[in-house]
Design goal:
Number of domains: 1
Radius of gyration: 23 Å
Order of helices and strands: HHHHHEEHHHHHHHHHH
Helix content: 55-70%
Structural class: mainly alpha
Length: about 375
């Protein structure tokens, strides 16, 4: 029998863990570095897609710096300290959506923008973040499982937000807003019976939506998806040029700033919604694969943080925002390659768009706030 003292091993271990300032500041250094790499790639591609516009890149950089500052600030807040604020932020989102319908900014074709003079923004971009967070806070406002009425209230809240976005009009964003609201509801444990009822209701009202809700140009986008070649110079132009750009890139791409479809402005909105086409043309399959690896790494860190969170509220926040981030990626990529209709969703943290950049970075700040710093 060994006479070794069982306390010897523990006595050899340091009593206090070493302080890691980087882990304290950034909360999750690998995730932060992944985001910085993605943002840098976005600036690189924006310079190319915008026709080497220094002003557009500079403006994007300003929003990135602002977003990173807010990310660091929010990441050091305790989730319990802003739980009630999140729940009531829903009303801020409703106010903004109603305000933009009553008093939209001039100079835009649709009622989607609020102009504050020094900058303008789309309330729907902010609601994409506010809605899932407020629903999560509402479902876990008490230390008990959500009740039947909670599922009904939160579903109606998501429907009302999406309806206000639809009235701008913006059907694509309205669907995304509604889906963003449903994600935390589903992850919180929405009963199977209610899910089946929702599916049945949606199936029954789909013909009515097609006949009475969708506008002509929205129907045209769906029909173009089924046959882009039917009107290649009209409604099918975006998809046709996007597919041509990606296909011409091949495996290795044509080289940075060497894409013909993007540099000669054949791709509409190449700096925003269709920037993925520019990546495919200039960097080919390898460039697209690198982008997916980078997105995958970021999502892995997000879900790791979420699964290791200490409470159901924090776990649901992180995982919901992670799935919403994934949803935006899938919608943009599938739209660009012609699998789903064009709905005007930017590629997260890559496409041009100040409001989108700031909102996404604040969302990552919320995710990081659920992780304790490694002291």
């Amino acid at each position: 029998m060994s006479n070794r003292n069982p306390l010897d091993y523990s006595l050899n271990k340091p009593l206090v863990r070493s302080f890691n300032p980087l882990s304290y500041i950034f909360k999750d250094l690998p995730l932060f570095l992944g985001l910085i790499t993605l943002l840098a790639l976005g600036l690189l591609m924006l310079f190319s897609a915008s026709g080497q516009s220094i002003s557009m890149v500079s403006r994007q950089l300003v929003f990135i710096i602002l977003g990173l500052f807010l990310l660091l600030f929010v990441s050091h807040l305790k989730p319990s300290s802003y739980k009630n604020l999140l729940m009531n932020s829903y009303w801020i989102g409703i106010f903004l959506l109603i305000y933009v319908l009553i008093n939209p900014a001039s100079g835009y074709e649709t009622s989607r923008w609020i102009d504050l003079g020094f900058f303008s923004f789309q309330p729907s971009e902010i609601v994409r973040l506010i809605l899932p967070l407020s629903i999560t806070a509402y479902l876990f406002r008490k230390d008990k499982e959500p009740q039947s009425k909670d599922w009904v209230i939160t579903t109606f809240a998501a429907l009302f937000c999406s309806y206000l976005v639809y009235k701008q009009p913006d059907l694509g964003t309205a669907i995304i807003v509604f889906t963003s609201g449903l994600i935390p509801i589903f992850l919180a444990g929405l009963p199977l019976l209610i899910i089946l009822v929702y599916i049945l209701i949606f199936s029954l009202i789909t013909p009515l939506i097609w006949s009475n809700v969708l506008l002509d140009y929205q129907k045209e986008r769906i029909l173009t998806l089924l046959d882009p070649s039917a009107d290649p110079l009209g409604s099918g132009w975006n998809i046709a040029q996007s597919q041509t750009a990606i296909g011409s890139g091949g495996v290795y791409g044509k080289g940075y700033l060497q894409g013909t479809q993007s540099q000669l402005d054949f791709i509409p909105e190449s700096h925003s919604d269709f920037i993925f086409s520019v990546i495919g043309e200039e960097f080919g399959l390898i460039g697209m694969f690198f982008l997916f690896i980078l997105y995958g790494f970021i999502l892995w860190r997000v879900f790791k943080i979420g699964l290791n969170a200490q409470s159901n509220f924090e776990r649901l926040i992180s995982c919901s925002l992670g799935f919403i981030f994934l949803l935006f990626i899938l919608i943009n990529v599938l739209m660009v390659i012609g699998i789903i209709p064009v709905v005007g969703v930017p590629l997260p943290l890559v496409s041009q768009g100040g409001t989108s950049i700031v909102v996404h970075l604040v969302a990552f700040g919320v995710i990081l706030s659920t992780k304790k710093p490694q002291l």
